């Protein structure tokens, strides 16, 4: 029955009308794969001779789903197909020749001498030769240094459309099939300890013709091509552990962590958290894990993580973790393991709905991990659901989801060269934020039941947003909330529209306590592109000075599309706060009198307002003041509001404020006087908290105290607080001389803070970086080195990042650029000038225009002066002329960002300077 449902779902999907672009890039959908037999032969021993070829053959069992199929179209990119034979039951094999190749569309078409009929099984056999590239896509090679020796390994990265560069296939997520994989290595490599891992467990090992062939079991479920994984290495594994033992029909399933022998001892956290999370997910979703084992491997220079079914890859520096990065390690593992259900078991039918995969995985990364209780995380007091609000929704989603520089969650993308750009923070962070809103709106119990139904209904197949929303409909009556119509109709606007709303809350005139609710699109400036008139169906929750109910996130009212609404209270109140715990994906603006009442309450008795809503008030006020499209909140009010932070002890309001100080710091740094006054203000409000927390841990510290201490030290030292600089310097000097140890969770912060204004320590840490081969250590050193205020030292570090002789992984090279931009926005022009001089060498070393898209996008966030705008325009033109940066959409977004910043400098900067001057000049 599952197979029939799967075929029918593909028929429905392929019947939908598609655009000319879709017709060019997508496969026709008239024939689908059922099974692959894939054999790859590798030759690492030839790498010393600069021979990087491999060969293979694939047999694809396929079935037509339409009448009279006269062509077979498959995906292929960069492979040399040496033979193609088609076999149909009852007919002799047919040599199809080389076919007709469309290189731009990455499609190979074979004309058939007779049409295939519906459900007629055909087998397409292809032999081919491929090449292991050095870019981190396809079936690629990578190298690392261990004990003074260079070692080579092979691994795969097929998402989103790179399986076709490793073997001929139907390379779209909706084409699921079973696989049986075999990979061979030479006996020479086997004698050096090399072996092969893939998605399923080893079935047998075959010795033949001087080679060792690893045969793997057939995948137990159909799998999309982008999830196929292969690793050829001499890695060692942790002792196996077992999960899902609560399912007697399957028994416990094996979980192992793999890595270099040097680092495998650092895998305890990854192993323990992975096993525990698999048990949590199996219980939460009431569906056993679909494959026979989970291997997770730490790959040198791998881009973050990849959820391949049964063989998950991570960047080595993340998986083999240091103490201060426990949370980031565990949440990344939680994200990739969540994909085993959301993405692997149930897959978005095409990349236009990638948020179904990534939004759910990001949501679970926070809300699933919150259930993790193992000794390695000390009981887990991370409060990740609260962290989500200030780090995911406020800092990322809201800042990026701006009309003109964003896109809806659901969008059309077909070009394989474009798809990767849409694996962005809109898909991940807006997707997760909207899902979080839906969970609060339905109520957690109804939401979880609906998600289980969604998984059960679509397991082993592909899905759409409509399928998800229909699962919500099934449990609408069991929800604690009242819906004006079916959730599928209410929620649809959130995934098909870009941007998000501001809800205006104003007391209506008259003798009754009535608050009028209206909405409009939030934007940074008036003349930005994108829709300005969109409306949403918005769930409304609220608390008042007389009715404190911040913990109730079930909507009591709805602000509908194209309709106004209102809240009628029993009596007049001092203040109202809308959007309890910022559970809805929207900002809130109030009348001036309500804003002032909230400020008075924060100054007098802040804790009466929930800490997440205190963070919301700060973030909403800051961004309403920042926008040049509105004049709802002044910078005078926002800066007054920040004064209450002198007495704030919660991490979350502080995090919201410091997130917004980042923008002010970057823009005000264009004017020396403005920046000096800004530093005075930050130090004025931060000093009490620094003195309370200092740099020394206390027995009573909560995890949030530690997070706050890290942030406060970073900002106090960055703003030049003498006591902070002295303490940090002393701690780092003692640490480097092995006299004392620093608190593990503060290592990265203290390296950065101590090095920021100290050239001697910078040189010392640079020496350590040049000598180190430990990935965790190098990450800490780079974090510290990028904080220096010395322009000459930053230039030295940037030059080191493009030195082809330097012993650095690509991720470490790019980390230097990223961290300078994050930690050193005041010195942004150093990076811009460096890229202008060295972009050709960087392109040769890094490859791919997307690297420059990423770097220049990050640079643009901190540029805004007239000179910087002119400089960036010239650089983009020069790089475009050199074909180094050619993606028009990225260029447009970069220019839109710096024009927006330029407008802020011309319109809003004087307001901030006026306030600062009135207090500190």
TrEMBL record:
Residues that coordinate or bind Zn(2+): 335, 339, 358
Catalytic residues in the record: 336 (proton acceptor)
Principal location listed in the UniProt entry: membrane
E.C. no: 3.4.11.-
Limits of the Peptidase M1 membrane alanine aminopeptidase domain: 275-479
Gene Ontology molecular function: any one: metalloaminopeptidase activity
Topology term for the membrane: Lipid-anchor; GPI-anchor; Single-pass type II membrane protein
Extent of the signal sequence: 1-17
Record keywords, A-Z: Aminopeptidase, Calcium, Cell membrane, Disulfide bond, Glycoprotein, GPI-anchor, Hydrolase, Lipoprotein, Membrane, Metal-binding, Metalloprotease, Protease, Signal, Signal-anchor, Transmembrane, Transmembrane helix, Zinc
InterPro entries: Aminopeptidase_N-like_N, Aminopeptidase_N-like_N_sf, ERAP1-like_C_dom, M1_APN-typ, Peptidase_M1, Peptidase_M1_aminopeptidases, Peptidase_M1_dom, Peptidase_M4/M1_CTD_sf
Gene Ontology CC annotations of this record: cytoplasm; extracellular space; plasma membrane; side of membrane
Residue ranges of domain Aminopeptidase N-like N-terminal in the record: 33-227
Tagged with keyword Nucleotide-binding: no
Entry protein name: Aminopeptidase
């Amino acid at each position: 029955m599952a197979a029939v449902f799967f075929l029918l779902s593909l028929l429905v999907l392929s019947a939908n009308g598609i655009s000319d672009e879709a017709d060019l890039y997508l496969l026709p959908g008239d024939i689908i794969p059922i099974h692959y037999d894939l054999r790859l032969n590798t030759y690492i021993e030839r790498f010393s001779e600069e021979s990087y070829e491999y060969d293979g053959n694939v047999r694809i069992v396929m079935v037509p789903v339409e009448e009279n199929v006269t062509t077979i179209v498959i995906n292929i990119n960069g492979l040399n197909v040496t033979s193609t034979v088609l076999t149909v039951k009852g007919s002799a094999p047919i040599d199809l020749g080389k076919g007709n190749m469309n290189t731009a569309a990455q499609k190979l078409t074979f004309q058939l001498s007779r049409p295939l009929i519906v459900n007629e099984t055909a087998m397409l056999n292809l032999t081919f030769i491929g090449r292991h590239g050095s870019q981190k896509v396809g079936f690629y090679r990578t190298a690392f240094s261990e004990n003074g020796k260079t070692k080579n390994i092979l691994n795969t990265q097929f998402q989103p459309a790179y399986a076709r560069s490793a073997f001929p296939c139907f390379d779209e997520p909706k084409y699921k099939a079973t696989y049986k994989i075999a990979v061979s290595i030479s006996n020479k490599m086997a004698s050096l300890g090399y072996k092969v891992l893939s998605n399923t467990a080893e079935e047998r090992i075959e010795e033949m013709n001087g080679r060792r062939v690893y045969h793997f079991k057939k995948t137990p479920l159909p799998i999309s091509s982008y999830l196929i994984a292969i690793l050829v290495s001499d890695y060692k594994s942790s002792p196996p552990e077992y999960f899902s033992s609560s399912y007697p029909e399957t028994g416990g399933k094996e979980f192992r962590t793999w890595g270099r022998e040097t680092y495998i001892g650092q895998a305890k956290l990854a192993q323990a958290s992975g096993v525990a999370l698999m048990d949590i997910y199996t219980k939460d979703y009431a569906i056993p894990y679909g494959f026979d084992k989970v291997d997770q491997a730490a790959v040198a220079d791998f881009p973050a993580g990849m959820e391949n079914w049964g063989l998950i890859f991570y960047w080595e520096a993340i998986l083999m973790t240091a103490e201060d990065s426990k949370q980031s390690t565990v949440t990344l593992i939680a994200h990739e393991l969540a994909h085993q259900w959301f993405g692997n078991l149930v897959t978005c039918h095409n990349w236009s709905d990638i948020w179904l995969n990534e939004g759910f995985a990001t949501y679970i990364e926070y809300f699933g991990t919150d259930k993790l209780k193992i000794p390695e995380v000390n009981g887990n007091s991370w409060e990740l659901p609260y962290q989500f609000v200030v780090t995911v929704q406020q800092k990322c989603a809201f800042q990026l989801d701006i009309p003109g520089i964003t896109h809806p969650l659901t969008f059309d993308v077909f070009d394989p060269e474009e798809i990767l750009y849409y694996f962005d923070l809109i898909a991940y962070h807006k997707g997760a934020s909207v899902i979080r809103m839906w969970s609060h709106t339905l109520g957690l119990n109804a939401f979880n039941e609906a998600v289980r139904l969604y998984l059960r209904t679509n397991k082993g197949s592909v899905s759409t947003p409509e399928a998800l929303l229909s699962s919500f409909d099934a449990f609408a009556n069991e929800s604690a909330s009242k819906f004006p119509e079916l959730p599928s109709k209410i929620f649809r606007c959130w995934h098909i529209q870009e941007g998000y709303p501001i809800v205006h809350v104003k007391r209506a005139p008259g003798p009754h306590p009535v608050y009028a609710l209206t909405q409009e699109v939030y934007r940074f400036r008036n003349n930005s592109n994108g829709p300005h008139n969109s409306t949403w169906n918005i769930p409304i929750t609220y608390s008042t000075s007389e009715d404190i109910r911040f913990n109730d996130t079930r909507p009591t009212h709805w602000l509908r599309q194209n309709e106004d609404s209102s809240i009628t209270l029993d009596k007049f109140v001092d203040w109202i706060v809308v959007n309890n715990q910022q559970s809805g994906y929207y900002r809130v603006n109030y009348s001036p009198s309500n804003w002032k009442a909230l400020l008075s309450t924060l100054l007098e008795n802040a804790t009466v307002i929930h800490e997440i809503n205190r963070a919301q008030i700060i973030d909403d006020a800051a961004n309403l003041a920042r926008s040049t499209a509105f004049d709802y909140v002044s910078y005078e009010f926002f800066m007054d509001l920040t004064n209450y932070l002198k007495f704030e002890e919660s991490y979350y309001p502080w995090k919201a404020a410091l997130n917004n100080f980042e923008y002010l710091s970057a823009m005000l740094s264009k004017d020396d006087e403005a920046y000096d006054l800004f530093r005075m203000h930050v130090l004025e409000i931060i000093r009490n908290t620094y003195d309370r927390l200092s740099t020394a841990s206390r027995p009573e510290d909560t995890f949030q105290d530690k997070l706050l201490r890290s942030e406060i030290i970073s900002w106090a030292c960055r703003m030049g607080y003498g006591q902070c600089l002295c303490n940090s310097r002393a701690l780092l000097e003692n640490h480097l001389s092995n006299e004392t140890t620093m608190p593990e969770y503060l290592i990265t912060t203290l390296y950065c803070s101590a090095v920021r204004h100290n050239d001697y320590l910078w040189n010392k840490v640079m020496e350590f970086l040049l000598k180190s081969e430990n990935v965790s250590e190098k990450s800490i050193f780079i974090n510290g080195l990028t904080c220096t205020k010395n322009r000459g030292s930053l230039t030295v570090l940037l030059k080191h990042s493009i030195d082809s002789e330097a012993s650095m992984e690509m991720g470490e090279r790019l980390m230097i650029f990223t961290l300078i931009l994050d930690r050193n926005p005041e010195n942004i022009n150093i990076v811009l000038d460096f890229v202008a001089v060295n972009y050709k060498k960087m392109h040769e070393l890094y490859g791919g225009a997307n690297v420059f898209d990423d770097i220049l996008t990050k640079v643009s966030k901190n540029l805004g002066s007239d000179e910087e705008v002119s400089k960036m325009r010239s650089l983009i033109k020069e790089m475009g002329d050199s074909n180094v940066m050619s993606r028009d959409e990225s260029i447009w977004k970069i220019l839109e960002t710096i024009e927006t910043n330029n407008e802020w400098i011309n319109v809003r900067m004087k307001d901030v300077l006026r306030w600062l001057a009135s207090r500190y000049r």
